[in-house]
Amino acid sequence: DTEVTQTPKHLVMGMTNKKSLKCEQHMGHRAMYWYKQKAKKPPELMFVYSYEKLSINESVPSRFSPECPNSSLLNLHLHALQPEDSALYLCASSQVYAGGGTGELFFGEGSRLTVL
Amino acid sequence: DQQVKQNSPSLSVQEGRISILNCDYTNSMFDYFLWYKKYPAEGPTFLISISSIKDKNEDGRFTVFLNKSAKHLSLHIVPSQPGDSAVYFCAASFSTLGRLYFGRGTQLTVWP
Known about the structure:
heterodimer, A: mainly beta, 7-stranded mixed beta sheet, 4-stranded antiparallel beta sheet, 11 strands, 55% strand, globular, B: mainly beta, 0% helix
């Protein structure tokens, strides 16, 4: 199994809503990532979890709240988002974050978020 | 500051010909380089990689060349097929860390 599974594939929410994006992998990877991608732009790193601990927060606004319940799951909780937060949110995993591994990230298909 | 640059936003190639996608980087400490392919509405898919100790890596129709002195790498696709039409992202990393630094991508269109 070399898949990273993201749900939902599409999400439309209002600025006062609370929603969550979910990500799952069963490759035994110990590093998981959230990236944000806008049209015609490269993926931008948001968060990195290494061994279920938050290692990197790229100065992401607090209206985005990541959670890593276990080594296979990664959530992104969304609250009070703005229309400019509309984007494709990509989850990825890799063997490890630091100290080795191949450097290869496996990406999910993404969750397309629209904030009205 | 963009540490990985893909200066050609698009490339159009006829089916059967060679596609050459280019990438430049500024940080000489990068030691691992990857190419990802992305179709619309899908996440990026890993294509091929190269370690800085090599200057060439080949996988089927795909070959990546690395010129460390020029801080330049390229992806060659031979022969190009219409199914190769996608956005190609170059990425670089420090092999001790899993974080990738992406270029802006090049839209490849292969026409029959």
